[in-house]
Amino acid sequence: ILLLIRNPKDVATSFYHFSNGFSPLPSYETWDDFFTAFMTKKMAWGCYFEYLSQWNKYAADENVMTITYEELKEKPVLGVKNIADFFGISLTEEELQSVVERSSFQSMKNNSLKTHGTFGNVLFRKGGVSDWKNLFSEDQNEKMDKAFEEHLGGTKLGTKLKYDVYCKA
């Protein structure tokens, strides 16, 4: 199992834009309204912290490889190589480069009309790291950090996310 996780602040930011762009989901007039819903577990797909907490039970299993979105953005070649190794897939250098190029966010966004139709415009917005800084207030940042520590502090997934988000990205 490949478990891809992401900075909860960027998850919230991305889901805010996704919710407002996808009519079957509730939309939010303001970021503050969305943030309150996100932090009080009123999201269509549940609480991201609880999701990570559940996956943390399996994080040490040999059949589970955890990788962060931030890790893949920072070092895509190494990330794809590690994923291929985990699944026992041997790639030539040419195949490795092809996978890296074709799986980049920009490549997927450019091909989204073919792969996802008009829904691609909703799925592929920016694909960046740390876009949360454009929305979060200082108070919201502190609340998110506190929730992160309460749910994931000292766990394997929490430690990995914290390292990749705060130390590497």
From TrEMBL:
Q: What is its EC number?
A: 2.8.2.-
**Keywords for this entry?**
Transferase
Enzyme category, top tier:
transferase
The answer to whether UniProt assigns keyword DNA-binding to this entry is: no
Q: Its family?
A: Belongs to the sulfotransferase 1 family.
InterPro entries (UniProt xref):
P-loop_NTPase (IPR027417), Sulfotransferase_dom (IPR000863)
Q: What protein name is recorded for this chain?
A: Sulfotransferase
Q: Which part of the chain is the Sulfotransferase domain?
A: 1-155
Supply the Gene3D superfamilies for this chain: P-loop containing nucleotide triphosphate hydrolases
- GO MF entries: sulfotransferase activity
